[in-house]
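Listing S7. Sequence submitted for prediction.
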Amino acid sequence: MISAIRSPFGTRSTATEVIDGITLNGKRAVVTGASSGIGAETARVLARAGADVTLAVRDHAAGQRVAASIVRDTGSDRVHVVPLDLADLESVAAFSKAWAGPLHILIANAGLSLPDRRRTPTGVELTFAVCHLGHFALTLGLRDALRAAAGARVVSVSSAAHLSSSVVFDDISFSFRTYSDILGYGQAKTANVLMTVALTKRWAVDGIFANAVTPGIVMSTQLSRHRTPEQDKAFKSAYQIPPEFLKSIEEGAATPVFAATSPLLDGTGGHYLKDCHEAAIRSDRGDGFSGVAAYALDPANAERLWDASLRLLVEGNSR
């Protein structure tokens, strides 16, 4: 039995504290959704540690503003901004094709939560498309770059919201069941975890390891930008979040940075991390935000998701 991953960090640790003493000179990192919130702070901390960082963003102007602030804060001249729309498979393919050389760290941070059902032009429910399918396609496209790094890490930013839904394989895009943002977001966040299980199984032989994280509950981000104030209030009240559970952006970035850089994760993947520790498996949803659902780490579910995702990509590219 492999021991659970434990660290000296905890709920109130910041990304700066987590990376203290770690040098990333010569390493290259991509952070999706890095134009605000946790993604921007993650990119900032990685750059401060010496990494060459690419902000992969849908809003190029916002990404440029964040990059400029990172350069001012860190003095690094190795901060780049590249357009990436995860809902558009052509944009994902263009990003992957343009990448040259090794990639040591890929942080799949970008996320979306919608109050109503929307679909991509290829028919995939938009929350699932952005949170999972676009990142899946991006990771596949960057496989050679990750392999060339000889010890690459993929970090998938999930959420405790995964406890609200498994992946409903027979109706991923809510064609027959009633859509709700709780179920749509929960399903996508479960997919984030399952992807790391399937990816590590396939790519560990190439020295590529993937882990999923929950950053904690950070309300000061752009995740709810598509909701009205009333919809946002209803979404948050559905989770009944105690104020003491809320984190700052600096605290929220700690576990993604930990997963990307800590020596404790050398050569291991398929884990779900919370507060810089491996989370305990729970067999039912229960109450609260602790632990990881057993269905999110289930190898059979991971294989089914991998196959379903490949089919969706084939269908999308054939339209």
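Caption to Listing S7: primary sequence and predicted structure tokens for the chain studied. The longest strand covers residues 208-214. The two ends are 47 Å apart (CA to CA).
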